[in-house]
Task: inverse folding
């Protein structure tokens, strides 16, 4: 078996990865697909932590557009990420894995509170951890939560898994001449305002030398290839 380059990864998923064709809600079949993808990573010896968004259940900007307070909208989004994490954890369990859901907002009846040392211990024991409720604070996105948690658990790489096979200079769905980048520096990605991650997440990764890989979640074997250090998607580093 090939040598794994990134032994411990933080996988950032959009909430839409759990949605069906409607783009809304939780589709059990999609949860099963994600669980199978995660199992394949575990089978090659990769320790997996997951942060998942809430776009399939709640978009804070919709609330803001109707006059909702930002803090309220953000807290609703945090709760929605817990629902997604619980759904994915259930699918992971049915795939024979040992998931643990940890939340930044305490809700001990349904999940563990996030404790850094305990999260690392779960990873060392081969469990998959799902880190929900963002950072526990409003005004921070799940991208920022993913970058922060990646640093805290000593992840080797942050993988942003999307529906596109990397970072382009323009939307490839709208422009056939869009050019995909194989590699970018943090500064280039920030200056180009590509929208892959928010600027706070980029800054955290840059300040702590954490590489970012942007790839297509649904491309067969893409995550395994990334973990092995093979060229896939777009690598963002120094």
Result:
């Amino acid at each position: 078996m090939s040598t794994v380059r990134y032994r411990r990864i933080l996988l950032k998923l959009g909430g839409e990865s759990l949605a069906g064709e409607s783009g809304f809600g939780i589709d059990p079949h999609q949860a099963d697909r994600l669980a199978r993808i995660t199992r394949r990573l575990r089978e090659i010896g990769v320790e997996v932590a997951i942060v998942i968004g809430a776009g399939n259940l709640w978009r804070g900007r919709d609330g803001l557009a109707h006059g909702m307070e930002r803090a309220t909208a953000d807290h609703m989004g945090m709760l929605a990420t817990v629902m997604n994490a619980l759904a994915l954890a259930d699918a992971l369990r049915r795939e024979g894995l040992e998931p643990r859901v940890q939340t930044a907002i305490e809700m001990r009846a349904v999940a563990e509170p996030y404790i850094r040392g305990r999260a690392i211990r779960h990873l060392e024991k081969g469990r998959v951890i799902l880190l929900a409720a963002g950072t526990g604070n409003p005004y921070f996105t799940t991208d920022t939560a993913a970058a922060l948690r990646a640093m805290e658990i000593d992840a080797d790489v942050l993988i942003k898994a999307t529906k596109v096979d990397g970072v382009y200079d323009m939307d490839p769905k709208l422009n056939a001449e869009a050019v995909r980048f194989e590699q970018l520096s943090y500064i280039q990605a920030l200056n180009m305002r590509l929208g892959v991650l928010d600027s706070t997440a980029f800054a955290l990764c840059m300040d702590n030398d954490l590489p970012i890989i942007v790839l297509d979640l649904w491309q067969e074997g893409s995550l395994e290839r990334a973990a092995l250090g093979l060229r896939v998607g777009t690598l963002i580093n120094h």
About this structure: The first strand starts at residue 8 and ends at 13. The chain has one domain: 8-237.
